[in-house]
Amino acid sequence: MERVEKFLKEAGTYYLATVEGDQPRVRPFGTVNNYEGRLYIQTGKVKDVSKQIHANPKVEICAFKNGEWLRIACTLVEDSTLSACQSMLDAYPSLQGMYKADDGNTEVFYMKDATATFSSFTKAPEVVKF
Length: 130
Prior knowledge:
This protein is of the alpha+beta class. The chain is built from three helices and eight strands. Strands 1, 2, 3, 4, 5, 6, 7 and 8 form an eight-stranded antiparallel beta sheet that branches. It has one domain: Pnp Oxidase, Chain A (Roll), CATH 2.30.110.10.
């Protein structure tokens, strides 16, 4: 899991795919935080992505850096504890101008039943499950 977190942080931007009805939706994300041994992402409850995750928590994440890419298939689980939200905001101080742990909008999700696949054109894929 640490390798996955490191890759996502070094990539800076990753893309989160959700589903809305029968239409895939993909958008850039940049938050990833290891809290209590789980990898978390963050969004706002008012966003369409939040509604899509709540309707269908199965998502995929894709990131690319230095000729290698990472795909993660997982189920996102909401963690509504203030400590999980605050941990994310502490890890990303730039978010604190838009979000507060107790603002009723900030939400964090951790990755469950994750299968992460590291791939490139030069070596065989490597799979990590967490």
